[in-house]
């Protein structure tokens, strides 16, 4: 029998119901399904113990423990991505409308480009050319930032010459 132990930080509460692990700290709360055949998860005081029989499951256990650690970081500190809009000729106008990213006047196009805001806890702040995406779930925050970049992706043009778009400039808190 193999085990891997993840220690729960101070001021963080963890609850395990079936295969759902809920992590909370203050007003922030995250929950995720942690299930993989052959891996048993249990809580003892300030420790989360992953138990498994086969050595081949070790990689998956480390993946699950990394997800759990990022949940701890998300509810205590949060995640933040900073993006910047760049343009030369046509000024880009970025707005958020009902969980949608809307980019107007990209390369003078009449039709707006749209993308998705992922997650319910993801918050977006637009100030001039700077965009800040914050939240408690790393996957949701990073995917929303990637969707900003994806909306303004340019094809069939030389990226060295046509550098207009929205780009991630900073990751982290």
Question: Mean pLDDT score, rounded?
Answer: 92
- Computed over alpha carbons, the radius of gyration is 20 Å
How many helices does DSSP assign? 2
Enter the CATH topology name of the largest domain.
Outer Surface Protein A, domain 3
Q: What order do the strands of the largest sheet run in, or round the barrel if closed?
A: 11-12-7-13
Taking pLDDT < 50 over at least 5 consecutive residues as the criterion, the unreliable ranges are none
Q: What is the domain tally? A: 2
> What's the shape?
elongated
The CA-CA distance between the termini, in Å, is: 38 Å
Give the SSE order as H and E letters: EEEEEEHEEEEEEHE
Name of the CATH class of the largest domain: Alpha Beta
Largest sheet: 4 strands, antiparallel
Number of strands: 13
Approximate strand percentage: 35-45%
Entry summary:
With 173 residues, this protein is of the alpha+beta class.
Could you explain how this protein is built, in words?
This protein is 19% helix and 43% strand. The chain is an alpha+beta fold. Strand 5 and strand 6 (47-52) form a beta hairpin. The longest helix has 19 residues, at 58-76. The mean pLDDT is 92.
């Amino acid at each position: 029998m193999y085990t891997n132990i993840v220690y729960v930080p101070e001021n963080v509460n963890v609850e395990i119901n079936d295969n759902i692990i809920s992590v909370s700290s203050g007003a922030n709360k995250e929950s995720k399904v942690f299930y993989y055949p052959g891996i048993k998860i249990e809580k003892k005081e300030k420790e989360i113990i992953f138990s498994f029989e086969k050595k081949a499951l070790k990689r998956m256990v480390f993946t699950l423990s990394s997800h759990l650690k990022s949940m701890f970081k998300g509810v205590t500190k949060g995640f933040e991505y900073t993006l910047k809009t760049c343009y030369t000729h046509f000024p880009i106008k970025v707005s958020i409308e009902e969980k949608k990213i809307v980019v107007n006047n990209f390369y003078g196009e009449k039709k707006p480009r749209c993308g998705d805001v992922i997650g319910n806890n993801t918050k977006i702040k637009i100030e001039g050319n700077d965009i800040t995406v914050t939240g408690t779930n790393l996957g949701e925050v990073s995917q929303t930032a990637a969707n900003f970049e994806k909306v303004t992706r340019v094809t069939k043009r030389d990226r060295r010459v046509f550098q207009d778009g929205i780009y991630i400039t900073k990751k982290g808190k």
